[in-house]
Amino acid sequence: MGKGDKKTKRGKINRGTFGARRPRIKKRPSIENKLDISKKAKIK
């Protein structure tokens, strides 16, 4: 169980693949995208 093992996290890192042991980290939408700058209150 190590770098050559397909089923371990270390083996997935070594091969550069993803799976149940090493899922992809999904990018969260940034705060800037959530708050729409164009819809700000207009200053009079």
From TrEMBL:
Residues 1-13 have a biased composition (Basic residues). It comes from the Bacteria. Residues 29-44 have a biased composition (Basic and acidic residues). GO terms for cellular component: ribosome. Keywords: Ribonucleoprotein, Ribosomal protein. The keyword Disulfide bond does not apply. Residues 1-44 are annotated as: Disordered. Belongs to the bacterial ribosomal protein bTHX family. This is 30S ribosomal protein THX.
